[in-house]
Amino acid sequence: MGYAADHKQTTRKRIIERAARLFRRYGYQGVGIDDIMAAAGLTRGGFYAHFKSKQDLFAAALSSELELAARLDGRAGAGRSRDAQPAKVLADFYLDPGTRTQALARCPLVSLSTDVARVGAEASAAYTATVRALLAEIERRVANGGADARGRALAALALCVGGAVLAQAIDDESLAGALLAACRERTAVELEHGRAPHRGA
What we know:
Blueprint: H1 7-26, H2 33-39, H3 54-63, H4 67-72, H5 86-94, H6 101-106, H7 108-111, H8 113-119, H9 121-139, H10 149-169, H11 173-193
Helix pairs in contact: 1-3, 3-9, 5-10, 5-11, 8-9, 9-10, 10-11
């Protein structure tokens, strides 16, 4: 019996999905081709029908990680509004103390940045494309737009990802909570106001 016309594409997608999940959880060095293929219900022998190397698969996995851009665009999750406030969407995803592990589990910007820097140019290109896609969705929703919209979007993204990364590594819950709260506040400033709130003398 022959395979359906889209069998190879479907299989490739399954491998990428399983690989992305494993890479986010264990890092690039912590996952082997055998692990990935086993997670996809396949044998190692079929790997090279889809990918040139583990690095090639890593780049493909990074390219598939656009969940947060989809959330901002209103495509992920029932009832999400295309006009949802980006500060709230970003803060809920990256900076909520009660669910902060979700960013580590689901966003390569939090879990894989250091790996990308070590793997090479192909991974960096895929990672950069992911950053650009997310940044574009944030920038489109910066309040009042203007010439500084891109700068404000960049700052908000850095606050969210950086805050999430630091909070994951800190073993002091009070400090981690204060860090996340400060990043949330500043993210709202960048995206909704464009200037720091006046705090008095």
